[in-house]
Amino acid sequence: METALGLVAGVAIILTGVKRKVHIGFTAALAAVVLSLFSGQAWEVLRMSLAETFLAPNNRTLLLAIAFITVLGKTMQVSGAMTALADSTQKLFRSPKGTIFVLPGLVGFLSVPGASIFSAPMVDASGKQLGMSTEQRAVANVYFRHLWYLIYPLYPPFILLQQMSGIPYRTLLFPGLIAVVASFAATAYVSFRGTTSHVEHQHRDAKGALPAFISSVLPLVAVLGLSLGVGLSFPLAVFIGIVVAVLIVPGKGFSTDNLSQRIREGVLPGIDWHIVGAVAGIVFFSRVVVNSQAVAVLAARISLQASSLLILTLAVPFLVGFITGSHQAAIGIVLPILLPLLSGQNNSYQLITLLYMASLGGYVISPAHVCLIGTIEYLKGDLAATWRLAWLPTGVLLLLTLIFGLVWL
Description:
Elements lengths: L1 H18 L4 H15 L3 H13 L2 H23 L1 H13 L2 H13 L7 H15 L3 H13 L9 H10 L3 H24 L10 H27 L4 H14 L8 H12 L5 H19 L2 H12 L3 H16 L2 H15 L6 H17 L5 H10 L3 H26 L1
Helix pairs in contact: 1-2, 1-15, 2-3, 2-14, 3-14, 4-12, 4-13, 4-14, 5-6, 5-7, 5-11, 6-7, 6-8, 7-8, 7-19, 8-10, 8-19, 8-20, 9-17, 10-18, 10-20, 11-12, 14-19, 15-16, 16-17, 16-18, 17-18, 18-20
């Protein structure tokens, strides 16, 4: 019971800090300390969580990748590649809306935590031309990336789900496709409502835009190709992308002066410690939540009081995803609780699908979600205002999940 109270207190601290515009990394770290004190084994929980945050290979890779991503974005801004990429993509797709839809989705297939920050500068540039608010740009950048995960078979949380339950991909595909289309439509509505494009139907410029697009997108292609195609570690792939961004710039020849400027103004001051600190604090809180067993206790209590499996497969996964800001943690915590209850159920795979969809909804909109907070920090937006827009596509996803649940039951 004490641990559950600590979890409530921790979440309240984060939400209060966000409302008062205190740095999210600080408030998340403070919330983690408070939660650990309620756990009855504060020192052990804090020791384990700090070690996992900064020393565990996955989290160390995440923090290094976030740092390199901010360097790459800064370098491409200084060189003019970011502007050239946004302009050429708009001309090729006839509208900035195509850029805003395509680029986050492209980054989404990396399946790397925090990589929404990778597309944020380009969405920012295109969104400004459309007259999108900061919060509209944040929603577009996060949701046009993450909603693909409803049907992406190489997404790590889905692989975990499949390994633990044996659920076939085809069971998830049909409801996932419907949810993708509907939630994308809701995202487009809230993101582009009230905007106008000043760069539409430039047919005569489309051909000339292709060389500029190819040269400006090369750093991104290098990262995608090396990480997905070759299997290189993501931080190393981004580092090579930084090198490409320094050496190749659309419309500019290579010169010592250009090279020096990109290194001096882009690479050296490129790490955004504000974002890195925010991500580190969020990861630390997430690890404390897991190590304190807070969510496991809460989920067990709710499962005992649940009046039906439908409530368990919707409410608990959404809640865990929302609290931890980790889809993989939500799957890893809730599925072992659910599986014994599904023994002998003919619709067990369908109920597991509900768990997957609901947990994704909670994860994407979570105040502990690295991509959401990182994007808002980069764009200097407001979390509360972003939430007001983000609840519509999230609500559509949850409503469809509920409808599928009622049909399957």
